[in-house]
Sequence to fold (370 residues):
Amino acid sequence: MKFAEITGHKNTIDSLRELIDTDHIPHAILLGGQEGIGKMRVARAFTSYLYCLDRQNGDSCGKCPACLQNNHHNNPDVHFIFPRTGAKTKTTESFLPQWNEFIDRYSYMPKEEWARAIDAGNTVPVIYRNDAGEISRTAALSSFAYKYKTYLIWLPEKMQPECANALLKLLEEPYPDTIFILVSNEPDKLLPTIFSRTQRFNMKPLSDEEVCGILNSSGIPYPEAREIASLSEGNMIKASDMAGEGGEIKEFSGYFIQMMRLCYARNAAGIRMLGDAIAAMGREKTARYLSYCARMIRESFIYNLKEPSLNAMTRGEADFSVKFSPFINYRNVEKLMAETQRAHDDILRNGNGRLVMFDFMLKVMMQLRK
Fold:
């Protein structure tokens, strides 16, 4: 991965490049920002530039032995730490084949695809205590081939408390040849003491023009790419899904339309069966579906204002909202949004998915005819 391959984030890239060029590299860097904006792409390009033996025009050469090792994920001094499953029976190293394939195929790092790659099911992947032990062990050793050892930690907010405390000790008394790069979707969930010991870069979502350019270069016609970009919120995972690579948006749209029709018809048996099907998707995907519901409720309410420029919906969503939006009004919109958020939070707090979804749909059913 080279800086030249990255769309956007110029200020962050310029600052990271300067750290290496001036040999003022901090022992801990935090790249924070929403999912799907390319934080790991920037982290990997930074690492390539750090180790490159023939830097050219502010970028790695892509051809030297160090660059080739980084491109093939076999640099002995670069260590990836990531959420996983199997606390007692497996190690991070057990998942390296899946990890290497994942980051090559999904460079914008969709969490659900990683969970699928390691067969997580309903288990939420985390970074375990024994991962911290492995970090401590290798950090105490000298670097193998290069000046620095680098640890790229993806989603450090998923660290178990024991792991986070072990990392904190390393940040408090860092080894001079060791660099930690934390790539976080939710940096506010890190221990404050870890957060304060990093040099932080708050990375912004991609612009609509940048998302549109990426989609267009991948073969999506410009008009369609522009529409998708306007709905993506700067998130390439969401944009790729709407472009048909993942299909999650279409799946959620189908469930949402079915749910609202069943709720309006007061079909309790139907909503129970649908709730079971949605809960079977797994905890994190169910939570994403509820976030989608919140967006569609909000957009349907806005649709009533008859100002198309205020809406951010796909053509299919807009076609449904033509008939559905009258049922979302000032009498029920706040209650619907509150119930959606409550269900979302209950799912992430390990609530029973089937019960949470059935209760949520009953609440929606009671509100729709107000």
